[in-house]
Structures are given as structure tokens and as C-alpha cells.
């Protein structure tokens, strides 16, 4: 279950830093839009991106969500990508995120296929 503070940050107009592990073990971090459902943190990306390739090889991730109004307020979720969702649901999800962050449907050209990464938390902390 997603912690109430994590949920609040995921549902706001706050950015997240997603950290995945490269094939050699070094971390790779990207600033991302973020969402959640009752049990997962949700990240939307494309299947050709390195972050997606990384989680296919090693599903362990960390997501740090920073409060846009107070960067000293944040949450960290350590967990695993337990499911990926593609197709129309992933496309609708990126449009919904874009509406929240930009007030318009997603505009950049999609180069491959959108995919939702469902991250199950092993540990959740917030400040």
C-alpha cells in the first residue's frame, strides 16, 4: 500500500527522480513525472529508453519525489518494478500526466511505445 504522504506527493504537480541500475551496476537517474495507484508508484516511459532496458534486466529502483513548493519536503520509495503496462492504457496515462503537469495532452513525438512501470514499494520514507 502506498503511504499517505507518498500518495499526496505522487498526485501533486511534483517531479520525481527515478534511479535504475545500468548493466555494469552504476546508477542512472532521470527526472520524471510521477503518479500512483493504491499499491504502486507509476512511471511512464518508452520501451527504447535506457531506463526501461535497465528495469527489464534488474527491476530494483528508487524513486525520490520532491515537493515543488518546498524541496525540503520529499519522499523516497525503494522497490521493484513488478509489472509493465503497454498499449492504449500507457498512452492514456502519459496524456493524463501531461494534463496535470502542462495542462495539455502529451506533445513530444513518441519514438517507440509508451509503457507504465508499476513499482511496488519495499520501503517508503518521507520528510
What does this structure look like?
The protein is α+β, with helices and mostly antiparallel strands. The chain has a single domain, classed as Pnp Oxidase, Chain A (Roll), CATH 2.30.110. The protein has 3 helices and 7 strands; from the N terminus they run αββββαββαβ. The chain has helices at 4-11, 50-57, 88-102, and strands at 15-21, 27-32, 35-36, 41-46, 60-66, 74-86, 114-126. A 7-stranded antiparallel β-sheet has the order 2-1-5-6-7-4-3, with helices on both faces. Strand 1 (15-21) and strand 2 form a beta hairpin. 28% of the residues are buried. The model has no long low-confidence stretch (mean pLDDT 96).
Short description:
This protein has 127 residues and is an alpha+beta fold. It has helices spanning 4-11, 50-57, 88-102; strands at 15-21, 27-32, 35-36, 41-46, 60-66, 74-86, 114-126.
What's the layout of helices and strands?
Blueprint: H1 4-11, E1 15-21, E2 27-32, E3 35-36, E4 41-46, H2 50-57, E5 60-66, E6 74-86, H3 88-102, E7 114-126
Antiparallel strand pairs: 1-2, 1-5, 3-4, 4-7, 5-6, 6-7
What distance separates the N and C termini? 18 Å
CATH C-level class? Mainly Beta
Largest sheet data: 7 strands, antiparallel
Order of helices and strands: HEEEEHEEHE
Q: Which residues sit in consecutive blocks of at least 5 with pLDDT less than 50?
A: none
What form results from the Cα inertia axes? globular
Q: What CATH architecture would you give?
A: Roll
Question: Which strands sit side by side, in order, in the main sheet?
Answer: 2-1-5-6-7-4-3
Domain count, please report it: 1
Q: What is the name of the CATH superfamily?
A: Electron Transport, Fmn-binding Protein, Chain A
Strand content: 35-45%
Amino acid at each position: 500500500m502506498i503511504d499517505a504522504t507518498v500518495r499526496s506527493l505522487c498526485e501533486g504537480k511534483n517531479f520525481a527522480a527515478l534511479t535504475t541500475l545500468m548493466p555494469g551496476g552504476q546508477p542512472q537517474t532521470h527526472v520524471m513525472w510521477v503518479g500512483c495507484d493504491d499499491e504502486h508508484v507509476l512511471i511512464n516511459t518508452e520501451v527504447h529508453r535506457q531506463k526501461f532496458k535497465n528495469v527489464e534486466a534488474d527491476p530494483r529502483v528508487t524513486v525520490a519525489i520532491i515537493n515543488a513548493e518546498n524541496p525540503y519536503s520529499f519522499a523516497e520509495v525503494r522497490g521493484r518494478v513488478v509489472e509493465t503496462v503497454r498499449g492504449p492504457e500507457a498512452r492514456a496515462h502519459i496524456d493524463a500526466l501531461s494534463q496535470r503537469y502542462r495542462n495539455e495532452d502529451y506533445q513530444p513525438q513518441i519514438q517507440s511505445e509508451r509503457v507504465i512501470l508499476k513499482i511496488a514499494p519495499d520501503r517508503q520514507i518521507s520528510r
